[in-house]
Amino acid sequence: MTLSELADLAEILSGIAVLVTLIFLVFQIRDNTKATRINVLSTHYTDGIELTGDGSRIPELAEAAY
Question: What is the pLDDT along the chain (66 residues), one digit of tens a residue?
Fold first, then answer.
């Protein structure tokens, strides 16, 4: 293998690594957003009856309550 072929291979591998990292970050941001929403909702609603009543109108509340 020549030096230019190795450089091409390294560029392809670095592109794949960047893509994998971006996909990983998307999932981490989604999980973090979901955890933050649940945390805020749990501090806002102290009574289970309030949460159940509002959960019928707001899907995120029903998911957090589950």
Answer: 899 999 999 999 999 999 999 999 999 999 999 888 878 777 766 665 565 656 566 666 666 655
DSSP-derived secondary structure letter, 51:
H
Number of C-beta neighbours around residue 13 at 10 A: 10
In this structure, what token pair is assigned to residue 19?
Answer: 């893509």
Annotate 8-35 with DSSP letters as a single string: HHHHHHHHHHHHHHHHHHHHHHHHHHHH
Q: How far apart are CA 15 and CA 53, in angstroms?
A: 49
